[in-house]
Design a protein that fits this description.
Number of helices: 6
Helix content: 10-25%
CATH architecture of the largest domain: Beta Barrel
Number of domains: 2
Shape: elongated
Strand order of the largest sheet: 7-6-5-8-14
Largest sheet: 5 strands, antiparallel
Strand content: 25-35%
Number of strands: 14
Order of helices and strands: HHEHEHEEHHEEEEEEEEEE
Structural class: alpha+beta
Radius of gyration: 22 Å
Length: 243
């Protein structure tokens, strides 16, 4: 069964030196499966596989986890693998636990800049800015030098003039005809993926990435208005921690 799951039935009579790196990886997983352990430790098991087989193996490992009812500790640098396979993710930054929780909890509620940038593809947009005004329940920030954006964020540790980082995911930015909560920028790359389109807009440091529908007619060179959803914005302080 293990050989069939891993598509290595035709390799069983070969010697290790006759196998490619990806084939050796699959054989190693198969050997672990046959022992029926209570705990599996996988250290980037899919890293040497081609894209199509990697997707298939993600599905097979998820099915295997349910069938064996065993704990699987899975080490990966691929956040897609972590998001699609894990019940719980532990994000490490330089050997220290940065945050742990369910995939969607980390996606929607990152505790710091590192987790916000690691979880999600394309990653969260980050914009360095300053606090223009502050009240008990909100702050007003500079939006890329064009206008201000009012956010319902309360923090006793913030004051006017403080440097912060605004984080917002590509799907929470919308192409808009209105200038309310909007920033105007020039498109320099268009990525069409069928189900959706990613627009890359010129910005001082790194590009601003906007997700729109797959049939979008926007092309390279277009000037567009991008609306920010204030309720979906994350604010990180100078220590890169969420506010």
């Amino acid at each position: 069964d293990a050989a069939k799951i891993l598509q290595i039935e035709e390799l069983l009579q070969r010697k290790p030196k006759q196998l490619s790196g990806g084939q050796r990886q699959r054989v190693a997983i198969g050997r672990a499966i046959t022992r029926k352990p209570k705990v599996f430790l996988f250290d980037e098991p899919l890293s040497n596989l081609d894209a199509a087989l990697r997707v298939q193996m993600r599905v097979e490992l998820a099915k295997l986890h349910d069938q064996l009812d065993a704990t699987m500790i899975y080490v990966t640098h691929d956040q897609t693998e972590a998001m699609t396979m894990a019940d719980k993710i532990v994000v490490l930054d330089q050997g220290k636990i940065s945050q742990s929780g369910s995939p969607m909890d980390l996606y929607h509620n990152p505790k710091n800049l590192f987790v916000g940038g690691f979880i999600g593809s394309p990653k969260m947009n980050f914009i360095k800015t300053k606090v223009l005004k502050k009240s008990a329940q909100s702050i007003s920030i500079n939006l890329l030098g064009q206008k201000s954006l009012l956010l319902k964020k309360a923090s006793s540790n913030l004051k006017t003039g403080d440097e912060i980082t605004l984080g917002i995911r590509p799907e929470h930015l919308k192409v808009s005809k209105s200038l309310k909560y909007a920033w105007t920028g020039k498109v320099f790359v268009v990525e069409k993926l069928g189900s959706g389109t990613f627009l890359y807009l010129e910005k001082e440091d790194e590009p601003l990435v906007v997700e729109t529908d797959g049939d979008s007619k926007i092309k390279v060179g277009d000037i567009i208005n991008v609306a920010f959803n204030p309720d979906k914005c994350h604010v990180f302080n100078a220590n890169k921690e969420i506010i």
